[in-house]
Amino acid sequence: MDKKIRKMYSEEIPDFQKLREMELYAVIKRSFDLNNLDPWCSSFMNGRKKRLEEEVPFFPLDLSLCSRTGPPL
To answer: Which pTM does this prediction carry?
Structure first.
């Protein structure tokens, strides 16, 4: 994979992470008893709506690490 394509994909990663975060939020909100969540769901949902509204990254990612040189992956 050449650098141009690798860079293009690495720039899309935050969008896919945000989409996944929104999907998990919607599924938990729709399908689970919000007053009786397991520890992981409870931790995930804690403040999630505000972070989504404020567009806080789910997992901050240093994209400079994705621009490594070397053999194609």
So the answer is: 0.73
**47 in any annotated domain:** yes
Confidence band for 12, pLDDT divided at 50, 70 and 90:
confident
The answer to whether 67 and 7 are in contact (CB under 8 A) is yes
Structure tokens at 39: 């520890």
**Number of domain units in the chain:** 1
Query: Could you list the residue range(s) of the whole structural domain that residue 14 is in?
Result: 3-55
Confidence of residue 51 (pLDDT cuts 50, 70, 90): very high
- Give a yes or no: residue 50 inside a domain: yes
In angstroms, rounded to a whole number, what is the distance separating the alpha carbons of residues 70 and 56? 32
